[in-house]
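To the wet lab folks,

You asked to see what we're planning to order before we commit. Fair enough. Below is the target structure as tokens, and below that is the sequence we designed to fit it. If anything looks off to you, flag it before the synthesis order goes out.
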């Protein structure tokens, strides 16, 4: 429910450059402003494939959530309250529990548009160039369970958010890497099947959650980001295979960050063509607007500057930011792109453009970055592999794989197995087959041998699923839902009375446990509930407090303190 701002505040906001930007785009500010200054409703995706999906739906309905009608490719919900306006503490606690235990992912509704518009095919190799905190990357991974998402994030601090979201959802088809988006490393032929470039932007369409934008934004902010946005998109386009598709998006209203960047991409990447986004097919009930071809020049107060054939002297303004008519260039039809404004659907705002690498324009059949600048007149040289350390991800040895599969009854062929420190991660086959195994050729024609991710700076592959604990491979809680269909050993049936007692804090001595149990790592099973335990002198649950609370909620157990 939208809570309108008071009249004095609306009058104040109407005088800001941000309101001036909206007027210059033909937006009815009287309709836009009350929504653009109100809190944003919580929206989310339901995690597909979990054993308790139906229970999660019941919980969302309990707090009066409703499915978003215009999103049909995934199950998405909107709640009747904002992040700062929960109806009660129980609703707030429930939303946190569902998110933190991986049953839902909180994500702005309009932020779900780029993966939907990309339409990746299952089995594709897809990249998110600016992936943190990971909502779009995980959405892509859920859409292509037999494909692989390369989630790239340059910032070490934000990288941790990406790793957390991958782990929370138990996703095995994601590879996390760290590169400046303008300089993402080379990779095996033929290149990426699909790429999402959700570029760093001024966020002028995020006023419903970033209130300071009303007072900090001026047109020079968007201009300062234009080159960064264009350069990231250029590098992505160079990594896209012929026939592949690329989405460029921002959460900005500013044409300098949107349509102007699209023009720059088309100028610098003649192998790309701009596709018309089929809104009627993809989301017929979403109100959106077509991209514009003739945006104005704005001064620092967001007043329109009259064009007299000479570029005005304004902070950060350059030739590339002018509209096509002002630049005297053949005008691409930008109406194939889309804009979503905050007031039309009670959402945030967004801009999306869709490109395709025209196969006929690159007869070599590979991404542009992989075409040699000149013919090599010598034997190619093998380049050195990256130095290994304890944090390097490598293929797990047959001995380690055999130990784990024997312990847990998992069929080895179901995954590709990776070793990093004391952990073993699992992924699907594409990570090995398309990225790790092949050789990679540099621009001079020399090559890095296969069986390595170099020159990509890979941080994590797949899902951490097992940890070496004193020579015993125990399952990791965050991977339990992923491993659930594959574990056939190490399961111990218990009754509901024992499960409830343990959830209340009971940690029985091994000899007093109602079922015979050895020392080591096991999973207790009661109906469809799985509870990892570590057995030493006592039988101890290896689940965190959030998951315990979910189980208590399902079973109607009052929360009690654990025994010392």
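Sequence we intend to order:
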């Amino acid at each position: 429910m939208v809570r309108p701002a008071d009249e004095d505040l609306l009058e104040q906001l109407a005088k800001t450059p941000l309101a001036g930007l909206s007027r210059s785009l033909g937006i009815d500010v009287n309709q836009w402003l009350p929504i653009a200054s109100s809190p944003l409703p919580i929206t989310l995706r339901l995690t597909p494939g979990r054993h308790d999906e139906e229970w999660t739906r019941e919980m969302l309905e309990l707090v009066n959530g409703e499915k978003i009608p215009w999103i049909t490719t995934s199950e998405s919900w909107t709640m009747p309250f904002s992040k700062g306006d929960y109806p009660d503490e129980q609703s707030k606690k429930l939303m946190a529990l569902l998110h933190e235990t991986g049953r839902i992912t909180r994500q702005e509704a309009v932020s779900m548009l780029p993966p939907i518009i990309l339409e990746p095919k299952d089995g594709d190799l897809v990249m998110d160039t600016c992936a943190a905190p990971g909502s779009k990357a995980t959405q892509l991974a859920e859409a292509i369970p037999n494909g692989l998402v390369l989630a790239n994030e340059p910032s070490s601090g934000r990288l941790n958010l990406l790793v957390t979201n991958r782990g929370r959802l138990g996703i095995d088809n994601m590879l996390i890497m760290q590169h400046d988006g303008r300089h993402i490393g080379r990779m095996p032929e033929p290149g990426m099947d699909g790429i999402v470039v959700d570029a760093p932007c001024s966020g002028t369409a995020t006023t419903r959650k970033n209130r300071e934008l009303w007072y900090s934004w001026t047109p020079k902010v968007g201009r300062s980001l234009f080159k960064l946005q264009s350069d990231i998109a250029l590098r992505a386009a160079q990594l896209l295979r012929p026939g592949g598709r690329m989405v460029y998006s921002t959460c900005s209203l500013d044409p300098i960050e949107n349509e102007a960047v699209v023009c720059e991409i088309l100028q610098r990447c003649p192998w790309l063509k701009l596709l018309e986004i089929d809104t009627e097919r993809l989301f017929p009930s979403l109100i959106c607007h077509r991209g514009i071809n003739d945006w104005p020049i704005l001064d620092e107060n967001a007043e329109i500057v009259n064009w007299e054939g000479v570029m005005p002297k304004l902070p950060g303004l350059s030739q590339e930011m002018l509209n096509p008519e002002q630049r005297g260039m053949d005008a691409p039809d930008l109406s194939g792109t889309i804009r979503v404004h905050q007031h039309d659907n009670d959402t945030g705002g967004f801009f999306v453009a869709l490109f395709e690498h025209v196969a006929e324009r690159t007869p070599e059949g590979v991404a542009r970055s992989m075409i040699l600048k000149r013919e090599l007149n010598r034997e190619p040289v093998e380049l050195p592999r990256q130095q290994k350390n304890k944090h390097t991800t490598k293929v797990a040895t047959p001995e380690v794989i055999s130990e784990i599969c024997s312990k847990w009854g998992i069929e080895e062929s179901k995954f590709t197995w990776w070793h990093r420190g004391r952990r073993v991660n699992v992924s699907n086959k594409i990570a090995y087959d398309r990225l790790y195994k092949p050789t990679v050729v540099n621009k001079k024609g020399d090559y890095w041998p296969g069986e390595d991710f170099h020159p990509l700076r890979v941080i994590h592959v797949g899902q951490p699923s097992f940890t070496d604990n004193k020579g015993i491979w125990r399952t990791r809680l965050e991977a339990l839902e992923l491993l659930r269909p594959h574990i056939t050993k190490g399961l111990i049936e218990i009754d509901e009375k024992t499960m409830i007692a343990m959830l209340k804090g009971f940690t029985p001595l091994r000899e007093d446990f109602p079922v015979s149990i050895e020392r080591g790592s096991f999973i207790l099973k009661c109906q469809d509930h799985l509870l990892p335990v570590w057995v030493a002198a006592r039988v101890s649950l290896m689940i965190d407090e959030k998951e315990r609370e979910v189980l208590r909620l399902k079973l109607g157990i009052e929360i009690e303190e654990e025994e010392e």
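Structural context that might help your review: The longest strand covers residues 240-250. The longest helix spans residues 219-238.

Thanks,
Computational group
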